[in-house]
Batch of 2 targets.
Target 1
Amino acid sequence: MDTKTLPADASGFAEAATLLRGGGLVAFPTETVYGLGADARQDHAVARIFEAKGRPRFNPLIVHVADVETAKRYVIWSDLADRIASAFWPGPLTLVLPLRPDSGLSPLVTAELPTLAIRVPAHPVAKALLAQFDGPVAAPSANPSGKISPTEAAHVRAGLTGRIEAVVDGGACDVGVESTILGLSDTPTLLRPGGLPVEALESAIGAPVAGRAENAPLTAPGQMTSHYAPGATVRLNATEISAEERLLGFGKVDGATLNLSPSGDLTEAAANLFHHLHQLDQDGDAPIAVSPIPETGLGLAINDRLKRAAAPRD
Ligand code: AMP
Ligand code: MG
């Protein structure tokens, strides 16, 4: 795939928005770092983020929107959220709020959490692109997993050329560190320190913010071993199934109740994964057997999620 460099002007924003609507990946500058954007409503596009970054697990992504009004379509808003957003949006602050049941977002975005991380960025290029696209953009940092976050278009190109449709070149990012993440679905809690100082948050809230232990890495509930396991037992690497089992297939297999990707495409499988697990869960409790999934590319994240579904229950 050819990775285009788009100019930060009306023609570049229009092309970037068209690529996003078509399920493409577009990197763009925010005031923190360059983000790797995809339409947060499209399963396949979001799956491609994990593929392009080589992420070994489906951790939740931050959704970027143009303004507070748009944010309210995806999260359950509150007075406190309103106060904080008026003070700091647009800006390097992400709020974690309850996900609206009618959000229409891909379950890959939240890694099946009941909450959503959302923010309104201040960078003029991010703002213009979001206004033009007029929808929710899921965007982690635009670097291969485990590498340094990019603060220039050239860094994005160095890491992701050939894996994404385009990068909008908006020069260097100002802040250079990730957004501060504030949990608001419960008591205000600092989930990640970042570009906005916690003291500024505390003076807006008028109370101390519960802090996590010094920069402790966030363990999202969706990453715990048997979280969101289906009611039925799950058996992996099944090449044959017994009479009572239901097969969650991958590739050319016979007798699958559902197939993650009949053609053996890992991106398609990732896009279908949460939907199929939920469907099987709804349809009954007969044991689930899953076809072998190759341990390459997106297969790592798919197998990580399936292993947790198959882990012994507490
Ligand atoms: P990045 O991938 O660098 O953009 O980082 C995204 C950060 O947001 C990670 O630390 C995630 O764990 C965190 N995050 C995203 N969604 C949620 C959520 N619903 N609840 C808590 N943390 C979240
Ligand atoms: Mg990152």
Target 2
Amino acid sequence: MSDSKMIPARLAQLRLAMQRHGIDAWIVPSADPHLSEYLPEHWQGRQWLSGFTGSAGTLVVTADWAGLWTDSRYWKQAETELEGSGIAVMRMPAGVALPHVEWLADNLRSRQTVGIDGAVLSLFAARLMTQRLTGLGILLNTNTDLLLEVWHDRPPLPTAPVYEHAAPYAGLSRRDKLAALRDAMRADGADWHLLSTLDDIAYLFNLRGSDVNFNPFFIAHALIGPRRSTLFVAEGKVPTSLREALAADGVDLAPYGQAAQALAALQPEAVLLADPRRITLALWQAKHDGVRVVEAANPTILAKAKKSESDVAHIRAAMAEDGAALCEFFAWLEHALADPAQRVTELTVEERITAARARRHGFVCPSFDTIAGFNANGAMPHYRATKAVHATIAGQGLLLIDSGGQYYGGTTDITRVVPVGEPTAEQRRDFTLVLKGLIALSSARFPRGIRAAMLDAIARTPLWVEGLDYGHGTGHGVGYFLGVHEGPQSISYYAAAEPQTAMESGMITSVEPSLYREGKWGIRIENLVVNRPAETTAFGEFLHFETLTLCPIDTRCVDAALLRPDEIGWLNGYHAIVRERLLPLVDGAAREWLLVRTEPI
Ligand code: ZN
Ligand code: ZN
């Protein structure tokens, strides 16, 4: 059957299953039981059912209608991929939490039933849905997984082995991490704690895996008790020696599917710490009604965000490896662009940059899909070149490259913009304004504990004074050989300045001011920075940023006349450090390139 017939056929099967279960509207979110950013194929049911391959989207199917909600990044892609499927593209407005629930509230009648699999729905979202729908008399069925009835060739669960993120990379032992977690649990009055989020689990147990793309995670739940803890992970994934090491540290293994039973077995007097945004409704419902629950953010979120001195030392080394890979890549790129016999496309960039990283010490995999966007493509912040649609890099313009790597000693994420041909005065002006924002925030000092969102204006001021802005946050937290996106801090005026976003020493955040000229070019300059203590005065403790990323910022795009002497000083100082740190790691063309591109201006 052709693709265009397959989707309607699958929807028809689903509608029959809906009828059998008395469900009037079925929701398929992009989610798994761990509420992850990247989903194993087993949970890519929304993609299987709709044909839409974007990473974020929610499908709603009724008896006579189907629609897929997605954000502005994916509108174009959704329109192409959903053509002829009978599924409408629903443009998700920014700032509306669950627009599909609003649609259901408007389009369903009292006594009709909405169904969604509670095993892939966060407790938090479940409560919002219940609030909105039950007030209208609309019923909610969360105990059924219709995919079980229609998706017969569903891919199995991933089976990649679990391995230890051991010394010297792991600065704290899992025993110490578990002890710190139990202290935090006791402070909340809890003796049990349920963890389903994969980054929290990988961090806590010093374990890693490769069950999903880009993140070194493995599929598991964990139940931490007063004395021992249980890791629910598929049999065969943990080698015997590791199983023994875990047991010695008070960690027992149980089959992946048994987390719900273990929760059900908790005694009614137990006090369970759980994070409503980070556990599913189905697991929540498994526990005995008598179990008292303390609702709070997982304590491991803050613990893993605050990198230790030893972590930061490894991250600096990983940054140097990453920088050396980029020198090699950019040296090749400049050479290739100057050679009329070579055809360089956005896809070649992605291949070459990953190959250069793969040659470096400690490299594991890319930390996300490389974004290489030439001219107008660079103006789309989440653009992804595909085999079918990509640009050849030639002529004149700006090439934006956002990429990163997972190394045993750290996670990287860097954006650079390089000129192709001679940049125009307007391009250089735009680039310099963005650079001014990067310099302003990178050299900021601020009170410890300030909410991260408050810092956003510092990076934007040079753009704001010119009446310019960009439509995404300035910085996201980054993990230590974990997710390239992690909380709790977020330097973004779009994010709520909640207490847990307070800036603390050791947190690593991206600084990525940008400017997009639709249809023309995009500029983003991105470094990772770590919060370091600056000084303590009569007014309190102050932090500053240490820039971790090591890679030249292309000065051919800079209009030096727009920079103040202190900004020129920052740029030259940064390039002196980049040169000093990377020179021992590169040779040949990469070394030549590094020397030229770190010349002071
Ligand atoms: Zn990036
Ligand atoms: Zn980033």
